[in-house]
Structure to design on (538 residues):
């Protein structure tokens, strides 16, 4: 088992209707439940914040990037290998709305 | 762990949509009508937060209260942010109207209808075009997404987006206040609201479109908003007439479409499918509408619909009374469609043959040139007089006036009947 960070990019769900969001809830819950203890954490990020380009140059009036490049949130999951992690990302209810970057964490897990 | 399905079941249908409509109104009251968009963003953010929290954890016992709490906190943060920014600029932020009423107060349950009424009057402000009013009402008050508004109004998302953008811009530019009009203005503004809600209802009702579910929701929303107004403006009879009219029409919803999704014309509708509860409610409202001796177009239209709903069968309809009410209606708002209806009723009273010349005359009216129901009516009446060749021409003309699959299917059936009768006649 290995840990992976799924990085979600874009503003995909910002434009969804309330009704659609409510419908998504069932899929989302199902996905989390299916993952069980393979699901470690997840969080949505605010689109504002700060961007430190270099030590002198700090931008605070976000957003700083194109909507499709903005990191909307992340999931931390456990999976057997990259292939399995990709499959998990693809099966997430977010997949139709965001670009998802699947990145293995460097340290191997101690078990 | 809680079972996901049980958890989801705790959410009533359309909870997100309903709460979104409520919260946008509350938040707009806090941030001012120039900031509807900000209110919408905060609400969207609140719903996304719910989606995340409830998916990973459990759905709270009172989901609506959870949403309200989160939205309130976000509003508070936004106000703080603005205050800081304003202090920075060393001037007051004029857009936030929170000096007189506190945030806590605005979020109170009893204050919610007040916010919604303000939103109704803002969305239905006469400075906005009618299509904009309807789109904005659906988006802000009813919690529809842009894609849903587009589908419901048979339009494209980009058209709706532009319409909404222009409407919000106008509200900002004209500084349309987020308030309930009072004094002599009230009556005029209520009239405008009635018209918008009437059109919203019609938009859903007159559809024979495949998107029938979402179209039907337009009717439900129009009725919900009309009821909300009723509770606050009891001295305004035409609101009661309007809701009565909506009840009578909504009562016939099921009967208008058969099991295969095909149109059933009024004459052939199964009256057992009419919703008697809604008809009874309509009669009650119509009774209340009679107070004050006011006679609006809604009174007359409701009166006509009531005649239809009360008749035991199509043949038993009190056509004289219907005709008289149409005459009065025509005097209030003369338009060729009412004349078409009057010609149809003449046909019921004096026979189809007697009505055809009147219909032919209407066909010359410029406004009815591309009005689909006219040739359909002519075709049906021609069939009744066994003039199937003419009927066929009328139905063929109707074919050129619609794109609705249901309407085209209906015409196909009627054309088939004509062909069959003509073939039988030749043998």
């Amino acid at each position: 088992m290995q840990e992976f960070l799924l990085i979600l990019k874009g503003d995909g769900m910002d434009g969804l209707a309330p009704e659609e969001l409510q419908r998504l809830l069932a899929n989302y819950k199902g996905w989390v439940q299916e993952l069980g203890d393979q699901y470690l954490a997840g969080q949505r990020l605010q689109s504002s914040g700060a961007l430190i380009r270099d030590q002198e140059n700090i931008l605070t009036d976000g957003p700083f990037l194109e909507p499709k490049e903005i990191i909307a949130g992340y999931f931390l999951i456990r999976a057997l290998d990259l292939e399995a992690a990709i499959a998990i990302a693809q099966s997430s209810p977010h997949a139709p709305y965001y670009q998802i970057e699947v990145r293995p964490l460097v340290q191997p897990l101690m078990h | 762990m809680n079972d996901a399905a049980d958890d989801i079941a705790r959410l009533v249908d359309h909870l997100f949509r309903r709460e979104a409509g409520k919260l946008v109104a509350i938040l707009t009251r806090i941030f001012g009508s120039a900031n509807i968009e900000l209110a919408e963003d905060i609400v969207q953010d609140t719903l996304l937060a719910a989606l995340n929290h409830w998916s990973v954890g459990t759905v709270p016992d009172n989901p609506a209260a959870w949403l309200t709490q989160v939205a309130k906190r976000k509003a508070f943060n936004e106000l703080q942010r603005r205050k800081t920014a304003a202090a920075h600029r060393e001037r007051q932020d004029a857009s936030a109207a929170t000096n007189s009423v506190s945030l806590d107060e605005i979020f109170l349950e009893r204050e919610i209808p007040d916010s919604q009424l303000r939103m109704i009057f803002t969305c239905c402000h006469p400075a906005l075009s009618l299509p904009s009013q309807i789109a904005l009402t659906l988006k802000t008050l009813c919690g529809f997404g842009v894609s849903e508004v587009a589908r419901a109004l048979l339009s494209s998302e980009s058209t709706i987006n532009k319409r909404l953008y222009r409407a919000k811009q106008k509200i900002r530019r004209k500084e349309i206040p987020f308030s309930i009009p009072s004094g002599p203005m009230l009556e005029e503004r209520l009239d405008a609201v009635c018209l918008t809600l009437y059109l919203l209802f019609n938009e859903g009702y007159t559809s024979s479109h495949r998107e029938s579910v979402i179209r039907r929701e337009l009717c439900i929303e129009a009725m919900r908003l009309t009821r909300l107004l009723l509770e606050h403006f009891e001295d305004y009879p035409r609101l009661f007439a309007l809701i009565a009219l909506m009840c009578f029409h909504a009562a016939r919803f099921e009967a208008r479409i058969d099991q295969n999704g095909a149109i059933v014309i009024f004459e052939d509708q199964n009256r057992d499918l009419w919703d008697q509860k809604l008809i009874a409610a309509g009669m009650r409202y119509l009774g209340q509408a009679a107070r004050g001796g006011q006679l609006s177009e809604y009174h007359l239209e409701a009166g006509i619909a009531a005649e239809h709903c009360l008749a035991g069968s199509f043949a038993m309809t009190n056509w004289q009374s219907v005709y008289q009410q149409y005459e009065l209606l025509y005097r209030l708002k003369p338009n060729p469609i009412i004349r078409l209806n009057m010609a149809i009723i003449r046909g019921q009273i004096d026979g189809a043959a007697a009505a055809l010349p009147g219909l032919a005359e209407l066909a010359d009216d410029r406004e009815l040139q591309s009005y689909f129901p006219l040739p359909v009516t002519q075709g049906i009446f021609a069939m009744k007089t066994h003039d199937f060749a003419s009927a066929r021409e009328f139905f063929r003309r109707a074919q050129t006036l619609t794109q609705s699959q249901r309407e085209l299917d209906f015409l196909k059936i009627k054309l088939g009947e004509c062909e069959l009768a003509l073939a039988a006649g030749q043998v």
User: Anything to note?
Assistant: The radius of gyration of chain B is 25 Å. The domain at 335-427 of chain B is CATH 1.25.40.10 (Serine Threonine Protein Phosphatase 5, Tetratricopeptide repeat). Chain B touches chain A at residues 1, 4-5, 7-8, 11, 14-17, 19-20, 44, 47-52, 54-56, 143-148 (CB under 8 Å). DSSP finds 20 helices and no strands in chain B.
